[in-house]
């Protein structure tokens, strides 16, 4: 290796000394995520009717390479429907420990009901707290189970370590 | 009596020939001709007497020799059909008269039944004797109420005089008739659907084989013929096979009925010898088209239409010639389509009819003929079509042809296909402009 | 016949359909309307192929040759042919791969999808749908149909158990044909025509005991099993192929379970037994297994209350309790739908305890093992002379269907390389049925009677007299043939005939003539005959006299098997009798004798009452120890059906806590007692059975294996003692629906209605009973809660009550004076 080569390499290092660092002082600072970042799942509703988009077809569970999703369906009450179809998901669970955030569930969904959002702070203490149900994922729920628990304990709003971002598929989800 | 046809007989191939005289329709339109007395007075039931004196096989041979072909549309030789019947086994066998005349453009059977019902009854007796059936069934189209009443009265008269029932006409042959009125379904003109309907089942066509001669009505051997075919048999027996075979052409012998409708001066039913040209039928008999015409349907709407030009008008009314021209002689219901009639609209009328009459048994007919095709026409006629829709109709019709269970889908597909072949410009004009080349008129005012 | 399918040369039997030839050659064509066991009709037009055949010159009779090649010239049919309705011809050439064929198939998929809603994500058939598969394989992937699809009713309840989605229907007519062709109950048809055609029925549901099969054969999601509606997707189910333990026909089942619950039961395929059909009682009667009140832990009575404990502790209590009882005074009884392996376990337990009081219940008075020539179900289906005594529809439903097969006169088709022929051209719609070959004898009007050419209604319990009279007549006629004047002697034989047996002398003679004329006569009898040893003996003798094979329908699934391996008392004195005062301790497998108050009273002062049960009942309420039992769906083992076929029983994954089958009980007991008992596991029981039956049950194929009849000597060693036939005015009749589980099967209960008390309308009138009224009446000591259902098919003076495992088929005393009306309560009567 020539001296020139070493100098060239050192040059790169040196030039970075004078650049603005990319380090984010998380959690003091908010993290900027890319638009297509895949974080915690959201279960969407039809914006106009408020009905759940999920029809309990279980295709997400079938597509899931990590077997993280469990769906149990039930028939809609025609007078008071939960979803727009014949059936809805009476149980919808994702095991966030198993989930690899590949987004296959989103691709498999025929109604666009499940979309991977930008939330990523899912750490928790107990296994059971990683199993997210419908109550934890439906539109309007902000934050992970732990964040919501903490917010409730402290009596303040859930605060995400996430800079305001936007994903067009996430109708009604607001960061 | 010999049934052999001699070649020396000169053929009558045009109605203008002075040797031709109207036979089947001789008493149609004659007041009081439908009663038994009137019928007996003009020599009625003599042919039946003669036939009953013959061996059944002889009658079959006679009809075979006459070259009589089925007048319901398919044109299967009647005598050959009769000879398919298995030998008697002592149990029931049936002769069925298909009087469910539903093909749009056809009306020949109606007048035969209304004005000369005994001619049909006599024909059925002869057929029944030939195939050794003791029960006949006349399945009358539901809408033909008058024909039904006349036939019922005629049967009662005949029974009262010992013409029907046990030991008919003083012989030891038993024969009686069942008169059954349909409930208004085109598909019942299909022989096996007719049998299902008669048995009280859903009028779906049956699988063939077994053919009716093996398993027809109630699973028993059955022969089924058209009204005109059976009425013709009377005259074949009365006047001989030679007389019948002398009319028409080598391929199509005897007499037929041209039922002319559409834009002609004098629509009506005309008894003609086969081999007559369509020019004679349309111009000479029906008084010619009113205004310029662009096409004609030679044998009921299920037959592909032909352009109204010299080459096609000079075609003889004959099974083979029509098949060569890519169409069919069918029932002989000639419909003349005027130049200013939008062909898309005309075809929609045809398609709508078949869509309404599809029985729903098989997929292409139920989904193609009954659902998709009329919707495509509606789209075109509403001015919403695109040139791709015309291609789609053409493609769909190709998928329909020959794939369905019974010929009903073909009956809808053929005219459409032919109309696309002949008048594609009208379809494309409509698709491009949203309005037809010839604006729609009130169909009933012409 | 030699044919070619896409250049694969093939030799097939004449009469084969082209579609079967195509499959036999290893090629595929799509189809929807054909179904293996029904007539081909060519309605869906999916199976189109190009077909050609050589022709013979009319004049010379020689094949017309192709001038270029010198081979026989192939004349192609002008249109693509529906291969399911086309027969093969000598030299035929079939093309399923060309562009024209693909085009025709594409077009047909497109037509089929024109009005089919693509709601696959919400459809229960999704993932197991023939249309989905075929559209994927043969469709173009897109539709050019841009209009609104047909809108029709989406959730039409055809019956309580079957939901119809009329939009999804593709009009293949399988369901309509099924009802006419298989059970012969025409309850469904197309309504309207053309594009408006839909499936419909009369307003009173689907009155057929075999209605559920239409959900299996529907190629799309139009007909769905309501018990599993929206319960899971097809790929999520765990499939268990097993054998029904509901009745002795041994029907193959496929149990679909998910997360520890049975979600639905579908018919399995066993060409020799049930083909692909099962009855509604079997199909819809599974909900009880998932019921919330299952016993999931062993329980021991402490201070008068049952407390859940561990198996080991429960078994210590059992051991201690039994330790204080004289071994010969312990009774062991298991239910007659226990597996053979459980039978071995019960035998081992009884042997260990040193008791001869071992039995299975219900066990009829007479043996249910056929002597002489046993008939298989195939023999039934190919018989040309059938004498049926009893009510097979309810005793062994599949036998009913196989009898109806015989009426069609079409023997089962030979298997082809791809299995059962897809389109058997010998079958047609609305085939004439040879009802004249079938004679049905039952003391009331049974379902099968409407298919029988001859029906005989003897008085209840009168089968013995009738059979003895027939036997005497048969013998007399045989002797008459040898007499000097046979005609006169035959008349003399008839002279002593008493019409009171239920049929006239002329009918009897005609019946014997029909059986004698038949080439393969079969005698089938069930519980009414087996309840009376004299009737049973006469039936066996009659079968011998007319040279008929015999099929005996036992009271429960494995009654024949348990009898065969000898789960029997050492002496008839020791037969299962819960009211016996000699027994000091009982070990009961899934039996509930304490429903009878006198038995309950007797049980109160037993030294030990150990009950192995899946649900709490009158007997567990008195038990010292209750052990959790699995249901028939969760057992591993084998069973022997009525025809003597060993069939595998496999366990579906159902969440049932610590429940086990009887081998588990014996294992736990052995551990507590410090003994390794035979039958402590299925494997150990199978080792024993291998020695006894010479069959390795672990290797049993899915469609089972016929067990040769036991040698006569072996049967003689355990000669069944004669028990007297019971008397009474209540006739306990077999029931297709298992009454003991009905309360926990909500769908089936709605569909079937509650258990009925059937009587002649005049009897109902005389007792002031009205239809639908709920009454409680003691039948043979057991208070039965029943719905009044007057029925003119019941003779006057006879009251019909459906059977329970603790109340076997036959006559029982009925105490009408103690009849109590449940005031104000009424129920629907089917």
Helix and strand topology:
The complex is a heterotrimer of chains A (175), B (446) and C (830).
Chain A: H1 3-17, E1 41-43, H2 59-63, E2 69-75, E3 87-95, H3 104-108, E4 114-116, E5 131-132, H4 134-137, H5 145-154
Antiparallel strand pairs in A: 1-4, 2-3, 3-5
Chain B: H1 36-41, H2 46-53, H3 56-66, H4 78-83, E1 94-99, H5 108-115, H6 117-130, E2 135-140, H7 145-160, E3 176-181, H8 191-199, E4 222-226, H9 227-239, H10 241-245, E5 255-262, E6 268-273, H11 278-285, E7 293-297, E8 306-307, H12 310-313, H13 319-324, E9 333-338, H14 343-357, H15 363-381, H16 387-400, H17 408-433
Parallel strand pairs in B: 1-2, 1-4, 2-3, 5-9
Antiparallel strand pairs in B: 5-6, 7-8, 7-9
Helix pairs in contact in B: 2-6, 2-9, 3-6, 5-6, 5-7, 6-9, 14-15, 14-17, 15-16, 15-17, 16-17
Chain C: E1 2-5, E2 8-11, H1 18-24, E3 48-54, E4 74-76, E5 81-82, E6 93-95, H2 99-114, H3 130-138, E7 156-157, E8 162-164, H4 174-181, E9 189-191, E10 198-200, H5 213-217, E11 223-225, E12 238-243, E13 252-258, E14 261-267, H6 280-284, E15 299-302, E16 305-308, H7 311-323, E17 330-335, H8 340-353, E18 358-361, H9 377-381, E19 385-389, H10 392-395, H11 397-408, E20 438-441, E21 454-456, H12 463-482, H13 486-495, H14 505-517, E22 521-525, H15 527-530, H16 533-546, E23 549-552, H17 559-565, E24 585-589, H18 597-603, E25 608-613, E26 625-628, E27 637-640, E28 645-649, H19 662-673, H20 682-693, E29 705-706, H21 712-717, E30 730-733, H22 739-742, H23 746-752, E31 756-759, H24 761-766, E32 773-779, E33 782-790, E34 799-802, E35 810-812, E36 820-826
Parallel strand pairs in C: 1-6, 17-18, 17-24, 19-20, 19-22, 20-21, 22-23, 24-25, 25-26, 30-34, 31-33
Antiparallel strand pairs in C: 1-2, 3-4, 3-5, 3-6, 7-8, 8-11, 9-10, 12-13, 13-14, 15-16, 15-26, 27-28, 28-29, 30-35, 31-34, 32-33, 32-36
Helix pairs in contact in C: 7-19, 8-19, 8-20, 12-13, 12-16
Describe this structure in words.
The complex is a heterotrimer of chains A (175), B (446) and C (830). Chain A is an alpha+beta fold and 175 residues long. Chain A is built from five helices and five strands, in the order αβαββαββαα. Helix content of chain A is 22%, strand content 14%. Chain B has 446 residues and is an alpha/beta fold. Chain B folds into three domains: 36-245, NADH-ubiquinone oxidoreductase 51kDa subunit (Rossmann fold); 255-338, Ubiquitin-like (UB roll), CATH 3.10.20; 343-433, de novo design (two linked rop proteins). Chain B has helices at 36-41, 46-53, 56-66, 78-83, 108-115, 117-130, 145-160, 191-199, 227-239, 241-245, 278-285, 310-313, 319-324, 343-357, 363-381, 387-400, 408-433; strands at residues 94-99, 135-140, 176-181, 222-226, 255-262, 268-273, 293-297, 306-307, 333-338. In chain B, the strands form two sheets. In chain B, strands 6-5-9-7-8 form a five-stranded mixed sheet, covered by helices on one side. Chain B has a four-stranded parallel sheet with strand order 3-2-1-4, sandwiched between helices. The longest helix of chain B is centred in the C-terminal third of the chain and has 26 residues, at 408-433. Chain C starts with a strand and ends with a strand. In chain C, the strands form eight sheets. Chain C has a seven-stranded mixed sheet with strand order 16-15-26-25-24-17-18. Among the domains of chain C are: 2-110, Ubiquitin-like (UB roll); 299-363 and 559-684, 3-Layer(aba) Sandwich (Rossmann fold), CATH 3.40.50; 382-411 and 441-475 and 506-516 and 524-554, no CATH class; 730-826, Barwin-like endoglucanases, CATH 2.40.40.20. Classes of the chains: A alpha+beta (175), B alpha/beta (446), C alpha/beta (830). Chains in contact: A-C, B-C.
